[in-house]
Write a structure and sequence with these properties.
Pfam families: DUF5753, HTH_31. The protein is an alpha/beta fold. Helices cover 49% and strands 12% of the residues. Helix 2 packs across helix 3 and helix 10 packs antiparallel against helix 12.
């Protein structure tokens, strides 16, 4: 079952609805700021979802914008609902920093589109591959830490079992070639390729491989994921991976760039059935 929408996404939805209401009544951000006795910047932050609007401020803005009763109640209910706390026993509680937000997005977004250049996407990794990745970290992780992080990553993968969520992965051939002699043999690579080939049969999941023959393509060096919500209005966020953490952005101009990159990557990659043939080739 899809998890509750994260607080950040709710803030974005509320902010964009408030922006639409402000524009509908032909009011500038500066004029809206006068309603709250605040700066234009604060209104901009609220409308982008960078900062969540407090309920007293929300009701003041709604008094000024004059929406219908249904719209007003819906926004107030959304604002109140986001205040609920996460359970300390939830999966997200096992992660820190940006990865905690990524887990929130993975479990709540209606769809996820991801491109990886040099590694296999975490949601598609086999246990053997995961353990080998953690063993490569320096300074070395303890056996207990490797076990803990492996279990956490495998539990993240359970989200793929939700038929109501859609997943689309584009993987550069380099990610597979990096496994050629992993742990001294080809066994991990063979197992990983067979696992992904099997995943292609899932009705909620697509995989495409970008082969060497394509040459350079836009965004080939980037590891990123686009998370989408079929809300009103629709919301998309992008997680760009870093060495340790990475960053999540909802800035529409930045998201737009990654959507353009994603479309080109779809175009240059092998189709799903061609990708299956690639994966099963010895």
């Amino acid at each position: 079952m899809t998890a509750a929408i994260p607080k950040r996404v709710v803030n974005i939805i509320i902010g964009r609805k408030l922006e639409a209401l402000r524009i509908a009544c032909e009011m500038s951000q500066a004029q809206a700021g006068k309603l709250l006795d605040c700066t234009q910047n604060k209104i901009g932050n609220i409308e982008r979802g960078d900062s969540g609007v407090k309920i007293p401020d929300l009701t003041t803005l709604l008094d000024g914008y004059g929406p219908d009763i249904s719209t007003r109640q819906n926004l107030v209910d959304m604002a109140r609902g986001r205040e609920g706390r996460y359970s300390p026993k939830s999966l997200r509680a096992r992660f820190h920093g940006t990865m905690r937000e990524v887990v929130d997005l993975e479990t709540s977004a209606h769809y996820q589109w991801q491109h990886t250049a040099m590694t296999i996407p975490g949601l598609l990794q086999t246990e053997a591959y995961i353990r080998q990745l953690f063993r490569s970290v320096r300074p070395s992780m303890t056996p207990e830490a490797i076990e803990r992080e492996t279990v956490n990553r495998l539990e993240r993968q359970l989200v793929l079992d939700d038929p109501g969520k859609k997943f689309w992965f584009i993987i550069d051939q380099a990610a597979f070639e990096r496994m050629a002699n992993m742990s001294g043999s080809n066994a991990i690579r063979r197992g990983q390729k067979e696992h992904i080939a099997e995943m292609i049969d899932r009705p909620n999941l697509e995989v495409q491989v970008v082969p060497w023959e394509v040459g350079y393509y836009w965004g080939q060096e980037s590891n990123f994921a686009i998370f989408g919500y079929k809300s009103d209005p629709q919301v998309q966020l992008v997680h760009v991976e870093g060495i340790e953490d990475g960053d999540v952005t909802s800035e529409q101009e930045e998201v737009s760039v990654y959507l353009k990159v994603w479309k080109q990557q779809i175009a240059v990659a092998l189709g799903p059935e061609q990708s299956r043939t690639f994966l099963l080739a010895r």
